[in-house]
Fold each of these.
Amino acid sequence: MSTIGKPLIAGLFAGMSMLGMAVAHAAAPDMTAEEKEAAKKIYFERCAGCHGVLRKGATGKNLEPHWEKTEDGKKIEGGTLKLGTKRLENIIAFGTEGGMVNYDDILTAEEINLMARYIQHTPDIPPEFSLQDMKDSWNLIVPVAERPKKQMNKVNLQNVFAITLRDAGKLALVDGDTHEIWKILDTGYAVHISRLSASGRYVYTVGRDGLTTIIDMWYPEPTTVATVRLGSDARSVDVSKFKGYEDKYLIGGTYWPPQYSIMDGETLEPMKVVSTRGQTVDGEYHPEPRVASIVASHIKPEWVVNVKETGQIMLVDYTDIKNLKTTTIESAKFLHDGGWDASHRYFMVAANASNKVAAVDTKTGKLAALIDTAKIPHPGRGANFVHPQFGPVWSTGHLGDDVVSLISTPSDESKYAKYKEHNWKVVQELKMPGAGNLFVKTHPKSKHFWADAPMNPEREVAESVYVFDMNDLSKAPTQLNVAKDSGLPESKAIRRAVQPEYNKAGDEVWISLWGGKTDQSAIVIYDDKTLKLKRVITDPAVVTPTGKFNVFNTMNDVY
Ligand code: DHE
């Protein structure tokens, strides 16, 4: 964990105990205060993302001690108390067919028992985080006037990769031309994503602990120039990209508290916080509608903000931050990740636990379609290509099914007019060796389509990536065993091959080999044309690499 992140997380948890005291349920198993503190930390780091801080469920199941709901006119009840410690221990240790992963290789038997007991208690409610709290956390390390006036290094910035070193709480900037690690910087805990300023000069990261950093790549070596905290649990940031607003604003979304924040794009000075609490598309109040993906429009001065539990998609107009205008579009519940179609007009976002993809027309500010898909779509940002039979398609893999879905998207180009009848339909499902896909990727210059499967329970599948030939999609994909190709010694924990990412030229694909915290991990680079291994970047500092963001492709939404 980074030195920036550690004391702040500890501080937030201290606040949690004071403001949101856990009330022990009468029948919940006993726990000491120390056990509760330890369990609270594990819950935040490992469980809250899927189940929610209030444990009302989203991608994961509801984990309240007791719940009741009405389905088809019938009242049903459930809860962790009903399941009891033994059953909960088994679920945590071995996972479920519903998509819960096994934790027996991540947590010790004692920790599994601790968590099984903890979730039978009433959830802890962490403190709110106000604009004033953000301002108090703001650290402007180098004012804009004191930063370089021009690029002070010779690195080809557009081909740099920002790589999350998850459990180290660090970010590696790797030179995409030389494959050398340029610099490793401290960030928030488990940086979730990096995004690029519209100019390509600044890298923004957001940690799971809400710490946001801005890194200036114009220095001789990349330098963190400001940090700010958004809340206590976060996943997304993006910049203002519309002409005239380049590098002007940054927006960040939090899981806790459920809100989004707007900051100055170069200094991170906090400007505004907007809560997302409210009604779901089903008309129920939700106290914890978390902000999932956020993306900046290229065609309007707007961000698309996807609110997970309510299923509401907000188009936030940033031309007047004081008098903020938002358009709220109803879609489907449990919005998660997504990306643009090839025209950059439609934003395609997975409503993952609803098994749907929502397409937002950012030109008209309306929902264009809600598309039924296979179980638990998880696109990352998705991948666009021209299908030989169906024309332009955007694609998503699935966590819960062994397919990749190809969805036909509209185009203004007359040569694609003949495909109109297919628009917003799943036109083909590509067969994968199993479920557990997280990310798909291709590039306009490539004929290959890459899909990973890191959440598959089979080692062989989770450690491989699968490459389809887009000229002949009837062929089975080529399996590349990334763990074997890395040449690293075998390890006890599965080394998950995750998130294919292209270089700027579109001729190399970089894969993270995400090992255990004490294992040697690596970035494995393949030649996209020949599918031959090109380079393995490994170093003791390359700890648990996950997301990789090529500067040019991220700036321009090339995927
Ligand atoms: Fe992610 C994207 C949330 C687990 C790696 N992840 C996203 C986005 C969200 C999200 C909302 C979209 C951000 C955007 O575009 O603005 N992720 C969550 C979760 O809630 C979840 C399920 C559980 C959690 O507690 O975080 C989760 N994610 C993971 C992982 O386990 C991964 C593999 C490793 C990690 O770092 O924890 C992981 N998520 C990623 C990556 C992206 C991402 C690499 C960006 C993909 C891209 O190409 O843009």
Amino acid sequence: MSNKKRLFIRSWGCQMNVYDSGRMADLLAPLGYAPAEAPDGADMVILNTCHIREKATEKLFSELGRLRKLKEEKPGMMLAVAGCVAQAEGAEITARAPFVDIVMGPQSYHKLPEMVARISRSGGVAIETEFPVEEKFDHLPAEAAPQGVSGFLTIQEGCDKFCSFCVVPYTRGAEYSRPAAAILAEARRMAAQGTREITLLGQNVNAWHGEGAEGLAGLLRLLAGIPGVERLRYTTSHPRDMDEALIAAHRDIPQVMPFLHLPVQSGSDRVLAAMNRGHTAEEYERLVDRLRAARPDLALSTDIIAGHPGEREEDHQATLRLIERIGFAQAFSFKYSSRPGTPAAAAAAHVDEATKDRRLAEVQELLRTQQADFNAGKAGTICDVLVTGPGRHAGQIAGRTPWLQPVHAFGSSTLVGRIVPVRIVAGHPNSLSGEIVEQEKDAA
Ligand code: 5AD
Ligand code: SF4
């Protein structure tokens, strides 16, 4: 088929970028672009970038260096840089890599078909780094490729919190909530395409305040009413926006899973204040108490930053103690990385690299132990597992527990898309292995 064109998208960073990459593919499908597995020979390559931590820009330029060679071999190839590095470093990209055809920020990818058409017609470069989020969501296509048993749905974008260390308010812009009607329509379509678990995405997802529902709790209630939507999750939440209604949603809505990603960043009040997080360690712990009272089997995940400017040894110790007291099932931890233009970057007392490395290692060691303990604790229990696909080995299936743990078990691939009881045989550091409870094995 000569009019079929091949599209390769490389995505870095958060789940929202994964979602955005999917929507870019949906937007380009009507123009004849079909997904390719590798950039070699592709007619269009999109690099969907992340700016949250260091080295993003350098990684991008080294990737662009490789792609330049592919482009020399295939001059018609179109090359686009999307995402937060494009937003923040648009001018540098066009200066250092003039062979790039399109530079577009996260709020502009709906214009992709128009940019591609313009460049195919008359050449040149397209640069789009404006901020009108509403417009983007209005222009997303109704047609979308299925996401599989578990899928993402962006409901909120941007952030007004301005944590000292974070570039998101600058790259993704102000908070914007999509209206409930648009979200419900997308969720219905996903359910009709076989998606059983929907993870709602937003940089500040629990600050959602769109039209048509009373906060995120109200929205979850509406989503839970859609036939086929069996599991709901949301990420990433800010502790300050965890209101009573949302806590109650974990108790009252069976589809809302007992797992919550709730970044705390630090266990020291001094550092939390310097970070502009708007809560103390004690307030975070009381919030966790209320969540666990509402939903006793709730498991928590978090983000920790080691070595924020001004962090002293006693602050680091306070972080370790908070982690010990809470007990996380999963976590992401990062060495503080100075982002130009953020308040923390301009702070006086930066922590030296060796100290940051050591503190991060200590944080990670503790979190690793907690995750391993949490997984080991599931051995011998029966978990409801959503079967998401075939497993790594023949005759195996892969799935997820309510607590997001990957599970492997022997079973038929006819079970994909179903929730089956699995007896957990062993808990490993990053996954579980189990056996499907007998009467289900032969079903379907
Ligand atoms: N340095 C290190 N970690 C960061 N994060 C955000 N900005 C930085 C930074 N400058 C982490 C936070 C956030 C997660 C998505 O990335 O922990 O919750
Ligand atoms: Fe960044 Fe803080 Fe906003 Fe999260 S809440 S996106 S860490 S500024």
Amino acid sequence: MKRKEFLKLLSIGTGVATFSPGLLACTSDGNTDLALPDNAFSRSLVFPEEIRANDFELAAETARHTLAGDTSSDVYTLNGSLPSPTIRVKRGESLAIDYQNRIDQESIIHWHGLIVPPDMDGHPKDAVQPGQTYNYRFDIDQRAGTYWYHPHPDKLTGPQVYRGLGGLFIIEDEEEQALNLPSGDYELPLIVQDKRFNDSGQMTYNLNRMDRRMGFFGNTILVNGMQAPYHEVSNRFYRLRLLNGSNARILDFSFSDDSSFYVIGSDGGLHDRPYEISSITLTPGERADLLVDFSGYEAGKKVRMTAEPRNGMGGMMNGMMDGGRNGNRWWNRGRRRNNRDNDGGNMCCGRDGAGNSGGAFLEFRITNKEEDSFRLPQALTELSFPDEADADRTRRIDLTMEMMRGPAIDGKFFEMLRADQTVQQGALEVWEFNNRTGMPHPMHLHATQFKVLDRSRGSLAPHERGWKDTVRVERRETVRMLTKFDAEKGLYAFHCHNLEHEDNGMMANFEIV
Ligand code: C2O
Ligand code: CU
Ligand code: CU
């Protein structure tokens, strides 16, 4: 490829043509093609252990763990497991959780999507040193849904999530239980993350300047900490609780045969009804509750779940720098459908045939016939959102790019105790995220669930129409959301959920007064 074309691709890609090609050349330290190993889909998917208790400990520790291939890597485990255990609680319960920090750096746990008092929220100011414990005491009083939890120390969230800390936090309530959604063996928690493995098969996290600007992108995709596992399912309905737990990678999820499925909930719980879709885009931090009907498959059939990269440079640069030799890698794979203007990473190659995309990360094997009494409900819940006309004010938040340090909020970088926005308790506000940068930012607010009103560069996907705590703001796009600040008074964070952006200071505080 000629240099001129190359640069053109760059500018089509992520709008970072302002960087010098010299910088771009050193994007990745991994050079092994780990797209799909020879033994792909030969190990069965493991699910994180589940904690169903009100009073328990979470102990973070350093460990060695084999994630892909047979080389072990330095990881962090929680209660000895990776990914971290799934916490399952009921609305109305009171929790006592002691977080024991036994890793080699300060840490604190944040309950993403939960509305808890400020000193229970895992703000970076509350981080505890190695050897110390943070005691959480809070009540669960919000909708059933798929929330999650993860470390949140200042400048260290990226490495700690990357090395394995973070799990699902499931809230159940009576309304949801009455729907009799698939549960037990028919409810599958799926944490999907991209990781970078080097030549010797070690998982690495060394940030260069480009990674700090763009985010850290992997060359391999893992589900529940495993590369390309399979899972046996019966031909009936399943519920998938899907989390994009990547540091920076936005992913388009679908099935290898393009079959449709239903989205029934998002960050903040159930939708009004099931929506039939055939792909779903999730940014880091976003969750989706899905129903998948396997009853149309004969026993013995296989179908794979795929995740196509929607953003990120690492793969593209590698593929081009070595003349396309690595065109088969997962992160060089094309997105098949939409948003071709968003990322240049797919221009050098197509998919290598149905069901065998490099984006496949999980194989479902349909086994026995089973009587399934579950019928897809017409309605799930009554959703009522506040009215935009009642908003007390509109607040405009600019997402900016600072020459020297990278992406920021309103031109500023995070300061631990500075209140960047002051909000009256109980106020109903429109927040307008105005992305003036050339890359997407998943914006997240603590201590609230919001309603996305609109986006300037497209319409809202079905899963964006429910309650949300994280929303994708595309490059040069304005996204408006509406939220009521009902949490306890105090200081809370809001930030980009691209964890390298967050760690680099694309975070601010709002204070409820
Ligand atoms: Cu999931 Cu402040 O983060
Ligand atoms: Cu959060
Ligand atoms: Cu960002």
